[in-house]
Write a structure and sequence with these properties.
Helices cover about 5% and strands about 15% of the residues. The protein has about 325 residues and is mainly β. Among the domains are: about 150 residues, Leucine-rich repeat, LRR (right-handed beta-alpha superhelix) (Alpha-Beta Horseshoe), CATH 3.80.10.10; about 70 residues, no CATH class. The longest helix has 4 residues. It is found in: Endosome; Membrane.
């Protein structure tokens, strides 16, 4: 790293006085990322009623997120970033958001990338269910293995739900969720985020350089796979991005989200012979991104159930067409 982090003694957080922001009544943007914070005092926000954007990413708030009360003081907050607040060498079962998140009535964008948890459950998103303005929920790079996708119907007004770069896989017969085998430890996650303004998602990098502090664009950037969000797909309407997971197999119970207009399934190394029954629940789907898979066109009926489809992207699916013989 061009500017290595030097922890405070005993890994102590940056000390910020409870009254630090008391007089900033017109403050609209507050960035507190990368400060080793373990606790968010409600006193910081007592007079910040105009705050529209709060960035708390890259701290140590894994436990704080489950019990914090500060959201109840931010009625006008539109964007909250809690990404990369994972606890080292810990793999909690679920997200377990504090119930105080239900007070964020103006929230439009919520990012919780890199919190790292095993299963996305109904109770995890319950505090978000009545946030009528919530448009984008970013849960990418969380190493999620099990996701009950049908619960996403409770988020009535979403425009984009991002579950990319996880470990979700297809359920076994008779199940209605996406699951994978159990694991206990993992390597530290390092990946990209996504920035969302006026319905458009743009690249947002968390670790390559510190965009809002030093702006150091190191000439020898660390290598990473660049997979920008598919804005063309999301422009069609309600979007679910489950790209770059472990989804190798689909069946008709895979999704029960008939309001979806855009589905991104790219980068899943999917080699199934599709027969026209897999997407029967998605009557309104207009854009399907099936790129970077291993499509096997054994059946001429593949994709025929998608009667509303406008764009089908099967780029870079040449695996079986270039195999020997």
């Amino acid at each position: 790293a061009p500017f290595p982090c030097v922890p405070c003694p005993n890994n102590a957080p940056l000390q910020i006085h409870p009254n630090s922001f008391k007089t900033l009544k017109n403050l609209k943007t507050l960035r507190l990322h990368s400060n080793s914070l373990t606790h968010i005092p409600s006193e910081w926000f007592q007079n910040l009623t105009q705050l529209g954007l709060l960035d708390l990413s890259s701290n140590f708030l894994a436990k704080e997120i489950t019990c914090t009360s500060f959201p109840s003081l931010l009625p006008n907050l539109e964007e909250l970033d809690l990404s990369f607040n994972y606890e080292l060498q810990v793999y909690p079962t679920s997200l377990n958001l504090s119930r105080s998140f239900r007070h964020l009535k103006s929230l439009k964008v919520l990012r919780i990338r890199g919190y790292v948890f095993q299963e996305l459950k109904q109770e995890d998103i319950q505090p978000l269910a009545k946030l009528n303005k919530l448009e984008l929920i970013d849960l990418g790079t969380n190493f999620i293995k099990i996701a009950h996708l049908s619960i996403l119907r409770n988020l009535k007004n979403f425009k984009i739900i991002n579950l990319s770069d996880n470990k979700i896989s297809m359920p076994s017969q008779g199940e209605t969720l996406l699951s994978n085998h159990r694991e206990s430890h993992y390597s530290s996650p390092m990946s990209q985020g996504a920035q969302y303004h006026n319905g458009e998602v743009k690249d947002m990098h968390y670790f390559l350089y510190d965009e809002y502090a030093r702006s150091c664009k190191y000439k020898d950037k660390e290598l990473w796979i660049s997979s920008p969000f598919n804005n063309e797909c999301s422009s069609f309407g309600k979007t679910l991005d489950i790209s770059r997971n472990n989804i190798f197999f689909l069946h008709s119970r895979f999704l029960d989200l008939d309001e979806l207009s855009c589905l991104n399934l790219s980068g899943n190394a999917m080699s199934q012979s599709l027969n026209g029954s897999e997407f029967v629940q998605l009557k309104n789907l207009q854009y399907l991104d099936f790129s970077d898979n291993r499509l096997d066109l054994m059946f001429s009926s593949a994709f025929q159930e998608l009667s509303s489809l406008v764009v089908l992207d099967i780029s870079r699916n040449s695996h079986y067409f270039v195999a020997e013989g």
